Amino acid sequence: MTDTEIHKGLAGVVVDTTEISSVNQETNSLLYRGYPVQELAAKCSFEQVAYLIWHGELPSDEELGAFEAVERGQRELRPEIRELIEQTPVSGHPMDVLRTAVSRLGSLETRFPDDEQSDYEKAVRLFAQLPAIVAYDQRHRHGMDPIPAREDLDYASNFLWMTFGELPDPVVIDAFGQSLVLYAEHSFNASTFTARVVASTLSDLHSGVVAAIGALKGPLHGGANEAVMATFAEIGSASRVEVWLDDALASKKKIMGFGHRVYKNGDSRVPTMKAALDALVEHYNRPDVLELYTALEQAMGERKNIKPNLDYPSGPAYHLMGFDTPTFTPLFAAARVTGWTAHFIEQQAHNSLIRPLSVYTGTPQRAV
Ligand code: SDX
After folding, report:
1. Which Pfam families match (predicted)?
2. Contact 191/337 with Cβ under 8 angstroms?
3. pTM (2 decimals)?
4. 311 counts as catalytic
């Protein structure tokens, strides 16, 4: 073998600096540009937080107004994307539709060169366009037409409007908005680092987002939030949790929604999203969901002492809001496009090609 130290999965390896967010496992905290995420989720709109992630400061009222005017003017579902969704079999996964749609949007971008300002403009355009894609993809699977965007609604309300054709109770809008803030950014997670690798070759922003969507789809990463609901459906009720869990752990299954590469004492975002889930459980009168949630969390703590990550409360929360389970990870992507694009721009502003090394352990050199 080799005496070279291998850092599989880059676990614990610091590869660069960033000014966008700080994930601190010692203090179990997450700061977006210095602000604690739980305070941002409680006091700011998703638009304000997106602006903060891109610009480094919360927007003044004037800056927010100008940003919202640009964002709201770009929400409509483009005909090319409507056609793409309608040509995709409903058996396909919504993350495949989203990945393909972003790639198509990239092919429609005519603005060159790819400088920082045009990349920011593209980022805001994607931010504005993803809700229409995610919303229509879910509606199309139910044989329904798209619902036009509304420029009089904020981002979260318009997203729900385009998906369901009605405005839910403010409790639901607030819970959805908080989930978007919590999902927006998380430093060098797998999908964001993927976007940075693409940025480091000086490729284009849409290519970086397409690659990031591919990484997020995996169940060890963003795909976990839909996998949590599959777990709940498989277990059925709180009374069956312990039998199910003992069997799952015996077969070495990874329990979706639990564990984290960085947070080893619990995910800093969970308390905020759990409070939002509690509010939804009360609003929809679904104590059964909370009983199952609590029973599995308790059983995992007793057996593996592994704590939930953000995907654990967000899965049942999106279920109660009425989203189809396969739509959950596209919701994660619509929020995380802010972090992905901010990191893409930061990487290119201080670039070095990302190209790690490997140790060869294959067949020794030989003649043909
Ligand atoms: C996200 O990085 C980010 O910031 C990601 C994210 C973001 O905002 O971008 O936070 C979003 O991706 C959250 C994670 C969502 N994924 C899941 O919920 C999938 C289930 N979780 C596991 O696959 C796992 O916890 C990972 C992948 C998230 C982290 O795994 P690590 O750090 O690579 O740890 P590991 O897999 O090496 O596990 C260490 C030990 C192992 O036991 P042993 O083999 O040493 O006995 O803990 C066990 C694991 O088996 N373990 C689990 C487990 N997570 C860890 N056992 C059962 N179920 C789990 N969920």
Report:
1. Citrate_synt
2. no
3. 0.97
4. yes
